[in-house]
């Protein structure tokens, strides 16, 4: 067995069902091997698209997303997507090819140092040893960060002595299940039981849970005796219609969540990185002293239940009735752009997975969407990457297909960011992915200037994707119904007037 075959066996054992890739000389043995394996090898149209797809796949499945690219320009094209996964904390494995070892660091075709992809960590695979993959997978899953594996061409063809192989399944499970004593951790926290508490939840609450278990977190959190607020990527982990949920904290947060975090005495923080989006500079120094981190590992639902039971015991008499009602009032509606976004949201199923790009549409979706399910909105919340929305939706859709997740996938984009990865319409069309692709066409790049747009509908025609141009808000409902009643991709170009964004909180 050569190393390529061993890698494929490893990926299959780790339940990797889809890889997003683009072929190239230095990675060809593994690329061809994928095509002959049970794993779906999805050929993208740009390596940046592959890394965003792997990211989207990881975010919806809470498992590893895998992308594959060749040396040199293949690796450099991955960079934006890997940086996005790093900033937004997503488990991605990026596999890149390299020239034969004897040509490394020489003036050889496509030969450059590719350590720039090692934002969290990376491995130069200088021998056919599957331990590199074991380490990469363990690190990516446990840190929720992208890990890079750079493999010289010759190593892919080398054979490994059976006696030197590790039992990677056991190694993988041992590291994953190296739990802390959560009971001891919770017992050692200094609880301020006389004050006004808040539980702030970040996406770390997802831990190593399966998608099906993530859906059950709401049933535990709804029994909390203390109010709950969330960071952006954790929205929907508790139904935002629930009175104990104050909603999103931060610059684009709800008034109730932001006022409560300012006025409370203690903030119990679970799985939140406390970025400047969550705690903006103006209030950061006021909030940080109130923070009590809860550093428990989340490996099963019992870990979350233990936390809620502990807090409920400590705060048995906190009054929270109706504290979080109406956290997303529609007084944010003031213009044509936001009204059309609201009309789109009102006609989608409540549990729709919406990927957004970077721009006005992202803000309006966040302000107007009440999240009732985990992963309702998947966005580049920390990196703000234009060009993220479409390829991320493709990764999300494959994650849904691979894991029997029965939710609609909708990609809402601005007319600027959409053009940065517009070529991935080919991936949508080629795989007949049922994704609703929406382009908010206002011919404007926010405050930065105007943009001249192509005819998006003709481009969709070129990719054989059914499409419509919408200028009137009254056309939106029937076109969304048309999409929902069919099993194919649909592209809607929604003409809208430019609209200034509401001021951020704490500005």
TrEMBL record:
The keyword Nucleotide-binding does not apply. PANTHER family: ACETOLACTATE SYNTHASE CATALYTIC SUBUNIT, MITOCHONDRIAL, THIAMINE PYROPHOSPHATE ENZYMES. Residues 1-112 form the Thiamine pyrophosphate enzyme N-terminal TPP-binding domain. This is Thiamine pyrophosphate protein domain protein TPP-binding. Residues 196-298 form the Thiamine pyrophosphate enzyme central domain. GO terms for molecular function: acetolactate synthase activity; flavin adenine dinucleotide binding; magnesium ion binding; thiamine pyrophosphate binding. GO terms for biological process: isoleucine biosynthetic process; L-valine biosynthetic process; sulfur compound biosynthetic process.
């Amino acid at each position: 067995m050569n190393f390529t075959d061993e890698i494929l066996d490893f990926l299959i054992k780790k339940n990797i069902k889809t890889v997003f890739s683009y072929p190239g000389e230095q990675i060809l043995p593994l690329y061809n091997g994928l095509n002959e394996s049970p794993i779906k090898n999805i050929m993208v149209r740009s390596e940046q698209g592959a890394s965003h797809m792997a990211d989207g796949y990881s975010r919806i499945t809470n498992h590893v997303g895998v992308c594959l690219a060749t040396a040199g320009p293949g690796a450099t094209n991955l960079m934006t997507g890997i940086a996005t996964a790093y900033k937004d904390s997503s488990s991605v494995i990026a596999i890149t090819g390299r020239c034969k070892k004897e040509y490394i660091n020489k003036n050889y075709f496509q030969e450059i140092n590719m350590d720039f992809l090692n934002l969290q960590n990376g491995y130069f695979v200088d021998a056919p040893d599957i331990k590199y993959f074991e380490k990469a997978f363990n690190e990516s899953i446990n840190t929720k960060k992208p890990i890079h594996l750079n493999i010289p061409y010759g190593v892919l063809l080398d054979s490994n002595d059976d006696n030197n192989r590790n039992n990677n399944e056991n190694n993988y499970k041992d590291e994953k299940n190296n739990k802390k004593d959560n009971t001891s951790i919770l017992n050692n926290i200094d609880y301020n039981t006389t004050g006004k508490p808040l539980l702030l939840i970040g996406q770390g609450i997802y831990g190593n849970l399966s998608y099906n278990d993530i859906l059950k977190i709401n049933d535990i959190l709804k029994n909390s005796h203390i109010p709950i607020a969330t960071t952006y990527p954790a929205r929907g982990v508790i139904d935002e219609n629930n009175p104990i949920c104050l909603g999103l904290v931060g610059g684009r947060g709800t008034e109730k969540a932001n006022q409560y975090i300012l006025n409370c005495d203690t903030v119990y923080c679970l799985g939140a990185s406390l970025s400047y989006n969550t705690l903006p500079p103006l209030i950061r120094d006021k909030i940080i002293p109130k923070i009590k981190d809860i550093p428990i590992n989340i490996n099963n639902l019992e870990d979350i239940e233990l936390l809620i039971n502990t807090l409920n015991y400590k705060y048995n008499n906190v009054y929270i009735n109706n504290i979080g009602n109406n956290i997303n009032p529609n007084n944010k509606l003031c213009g044509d752009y936001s009204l059309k976004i609201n009309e789109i949201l009102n006609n989608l199923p409540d549990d729709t997975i919406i990927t957004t790009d970077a721009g006005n549409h992202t803000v309006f979706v966040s302000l107007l969407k009440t999240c009732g399910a985990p992963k309702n909105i998947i966005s580049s919340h920390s990196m703000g990457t234009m060009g993220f929305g479409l390829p991320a939706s493709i990764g999300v859709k494959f994650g849904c297909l691979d894991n029997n997740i029965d939710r609609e996938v909708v990609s809402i984009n601005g007319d600027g960011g959409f053009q940065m990865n517009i070529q991935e319409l080919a991936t949508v069309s080629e795989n007949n992915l049922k994704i609703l692709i929406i382009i908010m066409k206002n011919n404007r790049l926010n405050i930065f200037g105007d943009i001249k747009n192509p005819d998006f509908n003709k481009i969709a025609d070129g990719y054989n994707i059914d499409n419509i141009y919408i200028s009137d808000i009254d056309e939106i409902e029937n076109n969304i119904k048309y999409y929902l009643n069919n099993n194919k991709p649909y592209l809607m170009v929604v003409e809208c007037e430019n609209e200034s964004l509401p001021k951020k909180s704490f500005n």
